[in-house]
Structures are given as C-alpha cells and as structure tokens.
Amino acid sequence: MEHIIINGGRPLYGNVSINGMKNAALPIISACVLNEEPCIIDNIPPVSDIEILLDILSSIGADVRRLTKNSVEINCKNVRPCSSPRELAEKLRGSSYLLGAEFGRFGKASVSHPGGCSIGARPLDLHMKAFEALGADCAHKNGRLEVETDLLRPVGNTIYFDKISVGATANAILASVLANGVTTIENAAREPHIVDLSAFLNACGANIIGAGTSVIKIKGVQKLHGCRHSIIPDMIEAGTYMAAVAATGGKVTVRNVIPKHLEAISSKLEEAGVNVICGDDCITVESNGKLRGVSIVTKEYPGFATDMQPQFGAMLCFAEGASDIVENIFSSRFQYLDELAKMGAEIKVDTNHAVIRGGAKLSGAPLFCHDLRAGAAMVIAALATKDTSTIEGIDKIERGYYNIVGKLRELGADIQKKASVKDEQISATM
Ligand code: UD1
Prior knowledge:
The protein contains 15 helices and 25 strands. It has helices at 22-31, 48-59, 86-89, 97-106, 125-133, 166-176, 192-203, 235-248, 263-271, 309-316, 336-342, 372-384, 394-397, 404-410, 421-429; strands spanning 2-7, 12-17, 39-42, 63-68, 71-75, 108-112, 137-141, 144-148, 158-160, 182-186, 207-209, 215-219, 228-230, 250-255, 275-278, 282-287, 291-292, 295-297, 319-320, 322-326, 346-350, 353-357, 366-368, 388-392, 414-419. Helix 1 runs parallel beside helix 2 and helix 8 packs parallel to helix 12. The longest helix is centred in the middle third of the chain and has 14 residues, at 235-248. Uridine-diphosphate-N-acetylglucosamine (UD1) is lined by residues 23, 26, 93-94, 121-127, 163, 165-168, 305-307, 329-330.
C-alpha cells in the first residue's frame, strides 16, 4: 500500500488545472446504457472510481474504447441487463446508477448493493421509491437489488422526494427518459451534476426540462441517439485546492472551473479573510495564511457542499478563533477530526456539530484517510503544518483526485508518494 509523505509549512504558488467532475461522469457514463448508439464523453477524470465503472460497462457487454486519457467512446448496443459483477459494483456508490439506466431501457435491472465512501448510512430507499412510482417492483435478493416491471418500460408518474438526494434524482431521471408518458420529479436535487446529466441526455434526444430547479419534467422518448459531450469541471477538486492555498498561504489560480458552481466555497473563504478573484473560467485565491474562524452548515446545492466540509475543517485548524461546523447530510463525516486531533488540533464534537478552536500549534503525525474527502483534509492539514506527516490509505484519495501529488508538487509543496516499507521489502525479494 502506498502512502504520502508531506514536509509542510510551504506556501503554494502557481496554476492548477481542474479535471472533469467525477460525480457528473458517473451518472453520465451510466446513462450511455440507455443508448443503442455510441457516445463520446470528453473531460473524464482518470480516477479509479471511473475506471471501475468503465470496467463494469465492459463486463455487461458495452464496447468501451479509450480515445485519450480523458475521452472515451461507449457503445451500449449489446449490453446485457442484470449482469454486472458483484466484486466491481460493490466498490463504488456510483454503480447504483446502473439501476436507473438498465431499468429505463430494459424494464429490469439488478446490481449488487453499491459500496462507496463510509461516511454514514447511505440507504437507497428514495431510489426505490422513484422506481416504484414508475411501475417497478423492487426487491433485495442474494445481496443484489432487483428492479423490474411487468410492462416493457417504466411508465411516467409524479415522484415526490421528501428528502433531497443527488443519487435518487439522477436515478429517477435515468429511469424516466425512455418511459411511456411524462414524469415530474418534485423536490429534486439542484446540483450542477444533475444539470450536466440532463444536458447530456437532451443532447442524445431526451426531453428533460427544469434541471437545476426543484421540479424536473421528463417527457419519455422512444429512443436516444449518439452524441459527444464534455463533462463539467469538478467543483470539489477546485474547492480542495482553494482551501489548501487558504491554509498554507500563497497565491494560486485554479483553471478550467465554472466560478458560479464555487460561490458557496468562495464566499466562505472571503469571510475567512482570503482574497478570491473570479475570472471567466478560473479563480485566483490569495492568502497570507492569517485566517479568521467561520461557521459552516452543510446543505444541498447551492448551499455549502458536504463534500467540502472536511477540507474546510482542516483549513480552519489554522484560523484565529473558533469555527463551528454543522454537518447535515452524512452522519459519519467527522471521523477525520480524530486524525486532526492527533496533530494537536483542539476540537469538540457533539453528534453533527463540531467546534474547532483554531490557532493551536499542530505537529506532524502518521495520519489515516477514512474516505476520499477525509483524505483531502489530511493532505491540507499536513501541507499547512511546519513538520513532517505521513498519510496512509491514499487509494481512497485517488478515487476522486487525479494526480494530486503531482499537482501539489507543481505548486511548490514538498510531497511525495512512497510504497510502504512492507511493499518495498516484497519487491526487493522478487
Ligand atoms: C452523492 C455523491 C457524494 C456526495 C453526495 C451529497 C456520488 C457517487 N456521490 O452521494 O459524493 O457527498 O451526493 O452531495 O455522486 N438518502 C436517503 N435515502 C436515499 C438516498 C439518500 O435517506 O435513498 C439520504 C442520505 O443518507 C443523505 C442524503 O439523503 O443523508 C443525501 O444523499 P445523496 O444526495 O443521495 O448522496 P449520494 O447520491 O449518495
């Protein structure tokens, strides 16, 4: 297992280019299953979650061709529903999108219970509720979720979500695109990736209106045609580099972003005393490393993203005064705070409320990543601490951040990836 070693305390300077958004690419790649013609998807982030999903598509009969590192051609003409292998589907939450896509095209779907980051309960009840509204029977059998209708296709209906869910909204869209009749999704998620998924499907001939608002209307069409689509930039990757510069000090321009998607993050950074300048497709962040404590409450988009909470938690350890964080979306998203406490951070947690007393002098420590965004938080804390830290579990970080070590090194960080001592001993004996 590889780990990261960081000699922290260096400010970051320069430019960093942001990849396509993993959480948009996952439903869009899955949406290709609805299409009997080939699609080309550009600006795909070459991260492990995407590689696994592409492997799943190949294994169910799709012809998946890499055109470049960031572009792929996917032809799902010969896809066989209900055949995704357990060992792959269990590795990522995004495999749940195959349920909506297979059900939408074939009237039946089956996927092993999806895995993903351990950030608290991640039920699929809202996804099932949507499929049932469209005429499906849903059941758990032999560790798989099965969705099936007696009719050939889903039938349009009104779906009301009593809780906002990104995944359930995406699955409801996937299941409705080829349905007979009109589907209305009420209390839909408004995340940019829902807008991007709808833009891709509309470019393939779907009829979706209202994506980006709380009410989405989908008029079922007979079939889709091929198209070429470029994935939107990853606002969470961008926000992670912005929080890193805020914590270490320095001046960095994050390129290939949509500044509008980053408004909640930019305005919190400004409140913390960071200078944020937006261009058309870039944001420059300048920090003298002197931060003020702020309050953060995670919410669905356009609120402050739960996927940015750990990175801000790490950054706020270096602020003057106290910061409050309220986590409203996932119950176990404070596990990373135990790691920061190992570095000497002063933190109190009461269920979903954390108080960070900034300004404590942190020292380097051996750190462990519980999940993807917690891993990003560890990296930020280590970069801003004038000491050496090691971070284990970087496979979790690489699920969502392409070349994070190389990108940070370009910005002047003293960071390297190393095989563990055990791995080095094994390779020495081979
Ligand atoms: C997606 C993202 C994840 C991000 C999250 C919130 C992917 C693969 N993952 O996860 O990175 O952190 O959005 O922006 O895109 N819920 C239910 N029942 C359900 C579904 C969800 O109660 O059937 C609850 C969840 O427990 C959570 C809340 O709804 O409290 C939001 O979850 P959701 O938006 O569905 O997150 P994911 O789609 O799993």
